[in-house]
Design goal:
Length: 106
Amino acid sequence: AHVPMNLERGVSVEAVRKFKTYAFEQVDRFIQAVTAALPALTKADARALISAVNAFTSAFWQISHPTDAVAELYRTDPQLGHAVVDFAPTLRRQIETVLLGLLSRR
C-alpha cells in the first residue's frame, strides 16, 4: 500500500518494471495458495482478499505503532484514546470480515 505513495516516485521505468514483475509474481503465488486452501474462492476473490490484507496490514501497523508524540496524545486525551488499535486482533477481525463477505457471495 505504501509502494505507490512512497517508492514509485522518482524512479526509472525499468526499476518499476522489475519491481512490479516480481511483486505480481508473488501475488500470483499467494492467489494459488489462497484458492488451494479455500477452493470456494475464485482467483478474483483471492486477489481481492490479498489486496485487502495488504491495505489493512500497512494501515493497522502504522496506527498501532504511533510516534512518541502521538502515543502521548492518546494517553493523555481520553477523547482520542479510542484511536489506539491492537494490531493482530484488529487485523484478524478485518480479514475475517472480508473473507466472510467473499464467501457469502458464492
